[in-house]
Amino acid sequence: MKKMVIKQQTEKSTHILPSYGALVLAGLSFGSIPVISAIMRDLSASSLEQTFLRLALGCGIALMIIAFYFRENYPIFQRSTFFSIQINYFLQGFLLSLMIIVYLSSVALKTPVGEAALLVQIHPFFTLLLSAIFLREKVTPEKVLALVLALFGVLAITTPWKQEKFFTNLLGDLLASANGLFYSLYLVLGRKNADDRSTIASQLSIAWVLVWGFLTGLPLIFFLTLLPLPPSLGLFRVSMLLSPSILILGILLALFGSVLPYGLIMYATTHVESSKAAIILLDEPIGAIVFGFLILGEAITLEYIVGGFLLLTASSIIIRSFAKKSRNTTKIK
């Protein structure tokens, strides 16, 4: 029995480190979202037009993935169609559509790229709370320390004591913050149903989420076009969607903003607690800050450097805590 338990722990540990790496890459990929969105905004594409392209193109790629599994691995495809699993995909897809709408709307309102990405990082606080309540995950000292460092990192970058820089666009900032709440719900829901989809390829799982995201996002987009929103938010023009430059940027937004990062998260949360995943994904604003500097020419201030260091330290604490545990398991073996 003891050997069997050790073997299971060893097999589990072989998936954990790649899962942490996947989360780091997912965070960096997410960092490209506000930058690509800002470029599309400067080309006069509204947030709803950007949202439609991101959802539609992501759905198109997802359908190809589903078709592949239908043809090449039908048993896995069939398992993914079970009602209990599809309900989870539906809920995550709905949350995804909400996340995309509020985040792109925040950028469309000219919230600075770095600030928008940072405000999303309130999600570990929500995730820690929701995970403890619904998943009964332990609130360990490592998680608390990482969250404290992350909080100081966010404060260092946003500099709330400088009123002319902090919350300069209240609505845009609130929308970015709302994305953090939806994001935490998405992570917790994914972790809660990880066992049900453990035998389903992560690529197939995220494909279904993207399909449901498009199907639930369409009525949301239609409803929002009926509201008296600013043009940067509520305009929806077919001619804009067919513009070659907007289409190319939309493809990049779908790949790096949906397919790649959410696929990596779907894989990682099968092996990693959602609260830990939320902390590691804190590298997202670092990616946004770097991309914003290289592509948009946004300045990297001392506050950004200090805050980025604290965010990376918070992420590394989680990884080191597992590495120590993994070494102890190896010594027992």
Offer a few descriptive terms.
333 residues, mainly alpha
Written account of the structure:
The chain is an all-alpha fold and 333 residues long. The protein has a domain at 30-143 and 168-273. Helices cover 80% and strands 0% of the residues. Helix 1 (2-30) packs antiparallel against helix 16 (302-332). It is globular, with a radius of gyration of 20 Å.
Poorly predicted runs are: 1-12, 329-333
Radius of gyration: 20 Å
| Number of helical elements | 16
Fraction of residues in helix = over 70%
Give a quick account of the main beta sheet: strands, pairing sense, barrel closure: none
Portion in beta strands: under 5%
Give me the count of strands.
0
The gross shape turns out to be globular
Following the backbone from N to C, one meets helices and strands in this order, namely HHHHHHHHHHHHHHHH
**Secondary structural class:** mainly alpha
* Distance from first to last alpha carbon: 13 Å
